[in-house]
Write a structure and sequence with these properties.
The chain has 115 residues and is an all-beta fold. It is built from no helices and seven strands. The chain is flat and about 55 Å long. Bound molecules: zinc ion.
Length: 115
């Protein structure tokens, strides 16, 4: 059987097909605003086969895959790794202010004129 494929690379979230088959994320917690980078999807395709729609995706680093961002002063949950009392690494959600540690602040990197 012939296998048809039409594989394309996708440069970023603004490229065509970046969000093909990628669902929108529901709003969770108290996050206020759709992410300006991924427009609510939380991730986008880095490569997609336009024949089969199989794709490789990357998680949005601006909203940590939530699709939504916090614009006020509420604490934001950020995935992090700590050493457990038993001595092995484990995933936790660390809560911090939006300005800390690269977490999106009121003005994101796009608002500052980057990109
Ligand atoms: Zn995003």
């Amino acid at each position: 059987m012939a296998h048809f494929s039409n594989l394309i690379d996708i440069a970023g979230p603004d490229a065509p097909h970046a969000f093909d088959t990628v669902p929108l994320q529901p709003r969770t917690d108290d996050l206020d605003k759709l992410c300006q980078v991924c427009h609510g999807h939380g991730q986008w395709n880095t490569q997609i086969d336009l024949a089969s729609f199989r794709s490789s995706r990357t998680v949005c680093q601006f909203c940590h895959g939530e699709g939504w961002v916090e614009t006020g002063q509420d604490l934001v949950g950020v995935p992090d790794i700590v050493i457990s009392p038993q001595g092995y690494p484990m995933w936790v959600v660390r809560h911090c202010r939006p300005e800390e540690d690269g977490v999106p602040a009121k003005k994101g990197p796009l608002a500052a004129g980057a990109a």
